[in-house]
Design a protein that fits this description.
The chain contains 3 helices and no strands. The termini are far apart. The longest helix is centred in the middle third of the chain and has 50 residues. It has about 100 residues and is mainly α. It has a domain of about 45 residues.
Length: about 100
């Protein structure tokens, strides 16, 4: 407790004894400082907005994809044949020595 009181007294006395600096800080320095502060605040605000709105954006996108995928089959009246047309034939014989699958015969 005594150390805390000594530290506070030292800080108060050192601030009270300090002589004023007769210096001029022009408006350019102040505007530069304000511009940097606004830029920093805008960057932090944008980062927070992106982090907070990311789950909402994914939720909306997921619902939109779900609706469009359901509407695609109901609008065309397609049945299982549409799904079969989209399926890719993966039964082709692929040897591990072939480097480019397009070159296989």
């Amino acid at each position: 407790m005594k150390n805390l009181a000594k530290a506070i007294m030292t800080i108060v006395l050192s601030l009270g004894v300090a002589s004023p600096a007769f210096a001029y800080v022009g408006p350019g320095a102040g505007l530069s400082l304000l511009g940097a502060l606004w830029g920093l605040l805008a960057a932090v605000g944008a980062a927070l907005a992106f982090v907070l709105f990311w789950p909402i954006k994914r939720l909306i996108r997921g619902r939109r994809e779900k609706v469009t995928s359901n509407n695609a089959y109901t609008r065309t009246g397609a049945d299982d044949s549409a799904q079969e047309a989209v399926m890719v034939d993966t039964s082709a014989d692929r040897t591990p020595s072939a480097k480019n699958p397009a070159q296989q015969v």
